[in-house]
Amino acid sequence: MHIAFVGETDDGLSPSAHHAMALRSAGWQVTFDHLGERLAGPHLDGVHLITHGQSDDRLMCNVLAARSAQIPVLRFWTGPDLVWAEFHEPSRMVAQALAHAGVCQYCRTESARERLAALSIAAETAPIVSAHLSAGTQPHPLPQQFTALCHLPSSRREFCGGAVIDSLIRWLPRVRFIVLGDRLGDYSAFKNVESLGLTDNVVRQIQRSTVALHARLDREPSRLMLESLALGRHVIANCPWPHCHFADSLDKILAAVRALQRDLTFNLAGREAVCREHDYAAAACRLRGMFEQAASAGIGANLPAAWQASVAACRFSSLGPKTFPPSDPASLPPQADALRALIQPRAAQPQGASA
User: Fold this and answer.
1) Are 74 and 47 in contact, with CB atoms under 8 Å apart?
2) Distance (Å, rounded) from C-alpha 207 to C-alpha 198?
3) Residue 6 has what pLDDT?
């Protein structure tokens, strides 16, 4: 099987990278094509799509061309993608057009499935795929110093809860914080923070931590949450998840941290549940099965000729791609704070020094 990955790079960290690893482990051929410009070519058995923030119609035209060529397309929804579709009209229109064209839709949680249904997009849930979710991973004891692990990529730090994490750092000077994905030097004024920037050894950083903090504005679970549970760590999250400490405000997070400090044990129940229900081998098998099922069903064989004609007209138009107007953060409704944070990623920056 040859699968083309569209929308994300093979950086070793993205969901697409972990999915590609799962397919390669079975001997499948994997290629990455950011805008899907070669999706209608020969010898392609399927397309893996993760996309958000549509600025023009090139990707849509390319994916529809693949559908016209009877190539199955599986779209995997992550939290940011869902936020864009909910509050950015061009992204929503593209998503709905792809759904009408028979693109198979998958998401991580039942709550995400319900949010997609509200957009008239039918989706199924699929397990999170991570090479780090395995009972074979050697568990390490909790560190002696209470350490909180946070993921704050510089391009999405506000979306990932940067303002909340910054407050926790100031309020908890005796707690050690490990920050992943930030720009080195962002926390140089804080003695209790270790900034690592991009790292390809996430497991090692989880092993050095006591608890993972999840304060993303989309309130959808992350892969880091499950990876932390698989290593017996605790997780404080603003979205409900088994064996995690639910806390949807700064006060509740502070209370959860202090409760753990008073009575801290290895999170054996969380580790056992994740290794049982989200094992990498089983999730990788499920992923391959989804592509095999879509290919054997011949999804897209009956696309109307009108679809094919419109696809060809879009794809090869001499007028070039149609550009969508950008979103104006000021025009977004109050409930679109998550998208506003994605559009203005550098709005929140660390300030002050720890006590």
Assistant:
1) yes
2) 17
3) 93
At residue 293's C-alpha, the angle toward residues 290 and 298, to 5°, is 130
Joined tokens for residue 54: 């549509």
Give the position of tokens 């407050």: 167
| Residue labelled with tokens 């992550």 | 78
- Tens of pLDDT, residue by residue over 21-44, are 999 999 999 999 877 787 866 688
* Element housing 95 (H / E): helix 89-100
Q: Are residues 216 and 297 in the same domain?
A: no
User: 3-state DSSP call for residue 56?
Assistant: strand
Q: Are residues 193 and 106 in the same domain?
A: no
Yes or no: say if 299 and 72 are a contact pair by the CB < 8 Å rule. yes
Question: Does 138 map to a domain?
Answer: no
The model's pLDDT over 144-194, given as tens digits with 9 standing for 90+, comes to: 999 999 999 888 889 999 999 999 999 999 999 999 988 777 788 899 999
> Cα(99)–Cα(92) distance, rounded to whole angstroms?
11
